[in-house]
Amino acid sequence: ADLILTATREHRQQVLESVPAAMNRTFLITEFAALLQTLDLHPGADRAAWLDAIKTAATQRARVVPTDVPDPYRQGRAAYDEMAATMIPALDRIVERAGSVVVEGVVQPG
């Protein structure tokens, strides 16, 4: 995979224990979204531009503080709301940088 996104630092660590060479393409969802925003990267729909953005993001990791997406498993509605409040804005930022929009849950070209 060109890009691996995980919900938590623990998940990222599990990926890296299995595939150490994936370090420069494995990010927390929130971390990658923050890097795209902080570095003002807009790779659009071009794969080469995404590869460049991923490479740039990997070299600039220290510029953001990664935040785990809370795990709502076996918890009440509030935990699911907290998870959504963390994950959905991050995913929206990533999709936006791809030049796409989400309409009623379906990703469409922007």
Q: What does this molecule look like?
A:
The protein is of the alpha+beta class and 110 residues long. The strands form 2 sheets. The chain has a two-stranded parallel ribbon with strand order 1-2. The protein has a two-stranded antiparallel sheet with strand order 3-4. A hairpin with a 2-residue loop joins β3 and β4. α2 crosses α4. The longest helix has 21 residues.
Helix-strand layout with pairing:
Elements: E1 4-6, H1 9-18, E2 26-28, H2 29-38, H3 47-59, H4 77-97, E3 100-103, E4 106-109
Parallel strand pairs: 1-2
Antiparallel strand pairs: 3-4
Task: Please compute the radius of gyration using only Cα atoms.
Answer: 14 Å
Quickly count the helices: 4
Number of DSSP strand runs: 4
- List SSEs in N-to-C order: EHEHHHEE
Give the overall shape: globular
Helix content range: 40-55%
Class by alpha and beta content:
alpha+beta
Return the average pLDDT rounded to an integer: 91
The largest pleated sheet is described as: 2 strands, parallel
Strand-residue proportion: 5-15%
- Low-pLDDT stretches: none
**End-to-end gap:** 24 Å
Question: What is the strand arrangement across the widest sheet?
Answer: 1-2
Features:
110 residues, alpha+beta, two-stranded parallel ribbon, two-stranded antiparallel sheet, 4 strands, globular
Describe what is shown at a glance:
The chain is built from 4 helices and 4 strands. The chain has 110 residues and is an alpha+beta fold. Helix 2 crosses helix 4.
